[in-house]
From TrEMBL:
Aminoacyl-transfer RNA synthetases class-II family profile domain span: 14-343
Protein name: Histidine--tRNA ligase
Domain of life (superkingdom): Bacteria
Listed Pfam families: tRNA-synt_His
UniProt-listed GO biological process terms: histidyl-tRNA aminoacylation
NCBIfam families in the cross-refs: PRK12295.1-5
Classification of source organism: Bacteria, Pseudomonadati, Pseudomonadota, Alphaproteobacteria, Rhodobacterales
Coiled-coil annotated residue ranges, if any: none
Keywords: Glycosyltransferase, Transferase
Complex and partners: Homodimer.
GO CC annotation, single: cytoplasm
Species per Swiss-Prot/TrEMBL record: Yoonia sediminilitoris
GO molecular function: glycosyltransferase activity; histidine-tRNA ligase activity
Binding site for L-histidine: D65, F66, T67, R92, Q106, E110, R299, Y304, Y305
Transmembrane segment boundaries: none
Amino acid sequence: MPNSPETRTEARRLRDLFAAMGAQVVKADVLQSADTLLDLYGEDIRARAYLTSDPLRGEMVLRPDFTVPVVQMHMESQADPARYTYSGKVFRKQETDESRANEYVQVGFEVFDGRDPARADAEVFASIADALGSLPVQAATGDIGLLKAAVEGLQTTDARKSALVRHIWRPRRFRNLLNRYAGKLPPPATRVALLGNPDPFADAGPEIGLRSRAEVEARIDALRADAAAPHISGEELGLIDAILRLHETTPNVLVELGDIAVDMPSIQAAVDRMSARTDALAARGVDVNGLSFEGSYGRTSLEYYDGFVFGFTAVDRPDMPPIATGGRYDALTAQLGRGRAVPAVGGVIRPDLVLEVAQC
């Protein structure tokens, strides 16, 4: 059913709804340059996307989503503000769950507008909710920007903070790093042996590989500096854990975050943005008193979300993937815009899942 005629009809209906809201209908090539995705996500993308080689265009990838090509299109046009909608197939590897489709249709709504980010967040969330209509779905929200602000406020080295931010979207790796920096996990035995050797190159043998000796020496120096850095305090570790454990209605979370911000001032700006977004959502008719917020929500998505994140799931189908997801991705526009950033937020719906839930 992911690619059935009924799914395509539903996709057109959803796309036309967003077009009626003022969004420009756009298309994106199915084959995208792999270099862009590799620059954004590193080699990890190979485990999630279908790559192929073209004799003229080099390494290419079957479109894993629409956001990256739409951002590229927008940054080239330099239109501001702008709204876009699209529909078409995306392709994702499913290495651990054969029941999940690796090819399906996606319909999206993207807003590039920096005049009032809170209002833009609310517009996209409410528009997706309105498009889903009376389907039996429940919404969950989160804020990657809140966790990033907490990490950036830690009393530790810039290198450690950069590593933690880089692994926010890999929860297990993030936790292991956090525990190691707090002294709760010992460093790897191989690293201890390396740093305990006064001359690591003495028995290293001939130089092979792509890295020069200077690069290897710089890496060893960085490891020595990290080993000498003081541990993250138990108090700061507890504050990070308190944010990750948040799972309550949005107003209650705001109260808890206000208390956390007293001891971790670095998150105050993110809390203020969340408060403004909550007001904007309420102004759009969203029942914020019943809207769930999770401190860890959105941490297994593609890494371009850096602020508000949300998703809609079927109430009685925990086995089903999210019907709709979305979030803010300001940093992605800076990366693809060669330093020029445009605040942006968007969301996508899977029309095949809409039909499936409607028939339940």
